Write the structure tokens for this entry.
Amino acid sequence: MPHLHTSPHQHDMTVSAYIVRNDDDAWRCLVHLHKKLDKLMQIGGHIELDETPWQAVAHEVDEEAGYSLDELKVLQPFADTPHGWGNTVHPVPFSANTHNVGDDHYHSDSCYAFIADALPSRSTADNESDDLRWLTIDELNTLAKKGDALQDVAYIYEYLLRHMDHMIPLSASDFSLEKPRNMGVVYKRGKPSENR
């Protein structure tokens, strides 16, 4: 999806999926070769106007990696999640950042951590990069130092691997992709879509 906010100093909201898989007792990090940047980076993209952040994660891992949520575990700080009041509960990102992508434009990114037990069951979507690589953190750091991978992606994967033992893997498909059905609040003056 193209950038939504294109004036200088504006931000787009994005999501990233940092996916790791244990292969022969070594954690491997999933990256793909971004077609426009020509650099290796994590799976992710923009939150579209009609999506929740979790819906954006689901469509990005499907299109860019070939995974469905039921093939992944999402790493969380707690074993249970808050529910009730008609809200749709999403997983908690393990990290968040804002970065400059050039032309005075910024992405504010929510980073989700996943464990995959196997390779994805499907191929990437049409028009997506099919250059997917499972790299050890040492391999990723080497490619980042050479300029072939984004350095911040290597740093974030390194951070994730350091803290994985403190997180709890939950089935990613346990979190709903539905939007809330109940109206949580009623505006007494005006409508939510009206300007102040």
Residues 91 and 117 are 19 Å apart (CA to CA). The chain has one domain: 11-174. DSSP finds three helices and nine strands in the chain. The chain has a mean pLDDT of 90.
